[in-house]
Amino acid sequence: MLASNQRQRIALSAYFLLSGICFSSWASRIPTIKTNFNLSAEDLGNLLMILPASAIIGIPLSGWLVAKYDSRIPLQISSLFFLISLFLIGFAQSLAVIIFALFLFSLSLRIIKIAINTQSISVQEKFDKRIVGSFHGIWSIGGILGVLFSTLMIEFQISIFWHLLWISIFGFAIILISFPHLIKNDKAKTGNNFKLEKPSKYISLLGLIAFCAAICEGGMYDWNGVYLKEIVKQEVFTYGYLLFMVCMTISRLSIDKLMEKFNMQTLYFAGSFLIMFGVSISIIFPTLWTVLIGFSMVGFGVSGLYPMTFILAAKAKKKFHSDCYFNYQHLFYRRHVFRTTNNWLSRSCIWVTKSIYHLYNWRFYVCAIKQNGF
C-alpha cells in the first residue's frame, strides 16, 4: 500500500501528464487548423490572440479561486472544461465555434496552471528532496506523448475531430481516477484576497524571468509547426515539436539534480544562451537538420526556467499568486507582437529579437537570485 504522500504525488503527476498531452495535441494541430480554415499567417496570429485575451479573465479568476477554495476544486472543474474545449476545437466547423473553443481552452488552462502549481508546492512540502522539477518533467513527457500521437494521426490522415475526441475521452478517465487522491485542505491562510497592487521588486524580477521564458516557449508552441510546414517545406510538420519536447523533457527530469550541482545563476545563463543560439541557427539556416538542432537547443534552454522561478517565488516573504503576474507580462507581449506575424521575415525578426532580449536580461535573473540568497 502506497503512503498518502506518494499517492498524492502520483495523482498530481497524472494531471501534469494530461495537461502536457492535451496542450501538445492542440499545438501540433495548429497548422491543420490554419489549412482547414484557409487562414493566412496574419489571420492565424489574430486567431491565436484569443488565448491571451481570455487570460485577462482567467488570471484574476484563477488566483481568487485557489485562494477561496482548496486547489483541487478549481483544478478538477477547469480540467473538465479544458477537455470539453479541446473536443470543440476538433469539432469546430466555423470560426465562431473555434473562437469560443479557444477562449474556453485558454481560460481553463490559466486556472489549471495556478491550481496545479499550488498543489505541487503543497506536495513538495511533504518530501525532503526537491520534486517540483520532476512534475514539470512529467508535463513534458505528456507533451512528447501528445506529439507522438499527433504524428501518427497525421501520418494515417486521421481527422482532427477523431484525434482530439480520443484525447478528450482519455482525459476524462484520468481526472476521474486521480481526483480523490489530490491534496485536500491546502487553502491559503494568508494572502487570500486578490488585489491589483504593485508587486515587490523581487516578484517583479521573477515575473520578468517568466516573461522572457514565455516569449521563447510560447513562440515555439504556436509557430514551430507552421515554420516547418511553410518555410522548411515538411509535410509531417510535427518532427520539430517532437524533438523540442524530447529535449525539454530530458532536461526537466534532470533539473532537480542540476540545481543541487550548480547554482541557479549558472543554469539561468546557460539556458538563455541555448535559446539565443538555437533560435538564431534555425532562422539563419532554414534547412531540416539545422532547424531540428536549433529546436533541440531551445528545448534544453527553456526547460528549467519555470521550475526554478516557481521555487524562488515560493520563497518570497509576501504571498503572491505569482503566476498571475507572470502571465500579465506574457499577455502584453503577445498582444503587440504576434499580430505582426504576417510573413516569413516578420516571424524571423520576432524570433531573433526575443531570443536576444532573453539573453540580454539574464542579469535580472542574477539580481532575483542574489536577493533571495541563492
TrEMBL record:
Gene Ontology annotations for the cellular component aspect, listed alphabetically: membrane
Gene Ontology MF annotations: transmembrane transporter activity
Keywords: Membrane, Transmembrane, Transmembrane helix
Topology class, membrane: Multi-pass membrane protein
Keyword Membrane appears in the UniProt entry: yes
Entries under InterPro entries matching the protein: MFS, MFS_trans_sf, MFS_Transporter
Protein name: Fucose permease
Lineage: Bacteria, Pseudomonadati, Bacteroidota, Flavobacteriia, Flavobacteriales
